[in-house]
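Help needed: design a sequence for this.
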């Protein structure tokens, strides 16, 4: 007869792992923040006019205005999420950018973001990406909005400072 180790049946829900739970937002913040900043930076470095032309081609109204709005949301919102500042405030416009990308660009290509079409001497050849990564970013933003930014964040430091001030009173 096999005995079950009670510690294993509880998994990570034991007190010794509880101290690690507070760190769960950190990788979400870092990848979402960095990802958004990287996309915004790429649009700037490759010439915003190319992005505006794409927006015009897919029928986005006021493509230059919407292009700059997108770039600013990606750069500023990405940085805010990366450092854990005003995450709830920036999550809404960031989610809007993702939803627009899903419905105007990625939806016709299905879910998968990686579509291997061929492997040639030049390397792997991929098709257009689907909406998978956008949905992952939305899930990460939702987790951060519903939870908190974590201890290594501007919001975490402000909360810690505020609680110390209250204790001193």
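Sure. Designed sequence:
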């Amino acid at each position: 007869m096999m005995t079950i180790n009670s510690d294993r049946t509880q998994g990570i829900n034991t007190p010794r792992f509880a101290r690690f739970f507070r760190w769960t937002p950190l990788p979400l913040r870092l990848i979402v923040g960095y990802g958004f900043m990287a996309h915004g930076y790429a649009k700037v470095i490759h010439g915003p006019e190319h992005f505006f032309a794409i927006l015009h081609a897919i029928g986005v109204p006021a493509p230059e205005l919407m292009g700059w709005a997108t770039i600013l949301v990606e750069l500023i919102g990405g940085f805010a999420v990366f450092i854990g500042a005003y995450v709830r405030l920036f999550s809404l416009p960031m989610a809007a950018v993702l939803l627009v990308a899903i419905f105007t660009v990625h939806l016709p290509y299905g879910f998968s973001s990686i579509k291997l079409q061929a492997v040639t001497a030049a390397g792997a050849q991929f098709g257009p990406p689907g909406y998978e990564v956008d949905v992952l970013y939305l899930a990460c933003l939702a987790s951060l909005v519903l939870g908190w930014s974590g201890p290594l964040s501007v919001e975490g430091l402000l909360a810690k400072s505020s609680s110390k001030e209250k204790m001193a009173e």
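The radius of gyration is 21 Å.
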